[in-house]
Amino acid sequence: MTAKRHTSFPLSSLYCALLTIGAVSSAAAQTESESIEHITTTASRTGTDSFTQPVTVSSVEEDDIALLSATHIEEVFDNIAGAQLQRGNGQEYLPALRSPVFSGPGACGGLLTAEDGIPLRAAGFCNINELFEAHSEMAQRIEVLKGPGSALYGSNAIHGVVNVITPDTTQGGGMTGFDYGSYGYTRYKLRSGYDAGNTGVGINASVTSDNGYRVDEGLDQEKVNLRHRYEGNQFSVNTGLTYTNLEQDTAGYISGTDSYKDKALAQGNENPEAYRNARSLRLWSKVAMTLDNGDEIIVTPYLRDQDMDFLMHFLPGQPIEKNSQRGAGIQTLWSHELADNMTLQAGVDGEYTSGDLLQYQDSPTVGSAFLVETIPSGRHYDYSVDATVLAPFAELSGDIDNWHWSAGVRYEHTKYDYTNNMNAGRVREDGTTCGMGGCRYTRPESRDDSFSNFSPKLGASYSLSDDLLVYGNLSRGYRAPQATELYRLQRAQSVADLEPVVADNIEIGLKSKGDVLRYNLSVYQMDKDHFIYRDSDYFYVANGKSRHQGVELEMEWQMNEQFALIVAATAAKHTYRHSQLSGEIDINGNDMDTAPRHVANTRLRYTPAENIIAELAWNHVSSYYTDPENQHEYDGHDIVDLRTSWDITPQMTVSGRINNLFDEAYAERADYTSFSGDRYFPGRPRNYMVSLVYRWE
């Protein structure tokens, strides 16, 4: 047991960051700079210069994605301040963005994930691991909008938006290559396109196999993007299709305090029977029209078809879950210039989704008499939900002298039509009652639920010079309760009377885009109300409150022709603001669990020649509590990676990586529960990868 810390929010970190930035800015100002424009589609749903936007949008570009050749998207997120993915096993993970790590049913609703602007999942049917359904390994770039994005994207965009942008392969050219790594890791890559002027087609594909370093783990995964393009004088159609397939043998937690430090335990697998299979298909078509008066209209219909089944090895009885969702939606956007330097954008988004979930257990529960009696074999849940979302929105933006401003609002209405496909109540599948107080799993009667919310935002930026601006914004995030929070109940709860989660955010920042020095320094505070959690009676309730404060710095300093320093760092504090007894301790004011105060990724890049790059990366994660009572703690870790790339010819590149260079014993994720104690997903020991890529025009 550790003593509770009483550390205040580290405003000194902001002061030091400002001094550092100021000193480096002064030095950089003596060198003539060229502004570099970075286009983002995530900040406004159209291509705009991210520098002028009064929000924080981080972007990992194609060159960095290729240099990493990440075996897991967690490695990409290390380059984004304020973001953290705690890797589970295989392609699984738990995300964090200006937040503690999201965990538990429905927690995935705190972050919206998308590919090419289309949400990966419907608003009420998110999955905590859903980013493995995006083709991040072969992305053109990955954009992260930090802070509430609900005014543009609706429900789930509370803490931000992750948007994986796939390459436009219809412009011709292509590449092929492979990655070979430790523990039987292989990935084969292909990108090819055909350009016929105003039309084109293309493919972007990868096939991955990983045996894993732990016993009885491994995965096979296939991903493909298909593209078609047509361009007329005032009319264009871009169509994309993404298909992914994952077959994974999963290794679960290892148990015991500091067990990740024991190599034999870290390599073991307490759940060799665990698995996850997932398939996803998305089809979209973006139709853009320019009218005679200069107005632009964009209409994007899309289809989604997904299913997944996995063994819930982390629950008593180890039930199997099968879930699926099929639906169609449409995004619309109208852009009109009201006056010089003033633009109105408006539209309506809508979608319909039919989802279903089945949880069943083949064998009797093994364990205590209480578990055996209260968790019977057979079906636990079997329900379907038809969900409808309708959301009009509008945004007004403009420029006045050195000012850029924007104001927007979105109204969103969500309706769930829930159907219970088996007997209702806290009983077995055959209708008999369980002893010892009743069965664990409760099935509500069929019913309808509706939720509505306004999500406003207001932001402004002021240009201090061509390469330096200050900005600020106010925004509200929102999410409707997830279907699993409403209809997957336990114990004596027969109805979950939940409210939408709402978060109010304020942010100020400073941006520079010089040729020598580029940075974004931001400070934010977000208060979240009605966040949903399970109380001590195992009831879903929506009376949670939390506060999220942080300072973030993303910086690239070209120190000279050969050396560059690249930093993505955050100092943050995430605390509970509501009273709740947990283990006889009131958690009000406590640090939220799995919320490290400091996370930083520092890269020293060396470019001895135009065709050679070497990079030494240091990833730091500070200690954090693993329980809401702040009684158990993970010590944190420091990991160093080394990677290099050599363009042998303009067409051929060979690269290599040593991950965890000093063979540090660490945990990707640390957790504590009252029934299992300390448990971990161990990090991989030192491992290697080599890659070869060949490109053609």
TrEMBL record:
The family database entries (InterPro entries) matched by this protein are listed as:
Beta-barrel_TonB, Beta-barrel_TonB_sf, Plug_dom, Plug_dom_sf, TonB-dep_rcpt-like
The TonB-dependent receptor plug domain covers 52-161
Main subcellular location: membrane
Q: Which residues form the signal peptide?
A: 1-29
List the record's Gene Ontology CC terms alphabetically: cell outer membrane
Domain TonB-dependent receptor-like beta-barrel, chain residue ranges per copy: 176-661
**Topology of the protein relative to the lipid bilayer:** Multi-pass membrane protein
Q: What GO terms are given for molecular function?
A: siderophore uptake transmembrane transporter activity
Q: Sorted alphabetically, which CDD domains does this protein's record hold?
A: ligand_gated_channel (cd01347)
Q: According to its UniProt record, which protein family does this protein belong to?
A: Belongs to the TonB-dependent receptor family. Hemoglobin/haptoglobin binding protein subfamily.
Task: List the protein's name.
Answer: Ligand-gated channel protein
Q: Which organism is it from?
A: Alteromonas confluentis
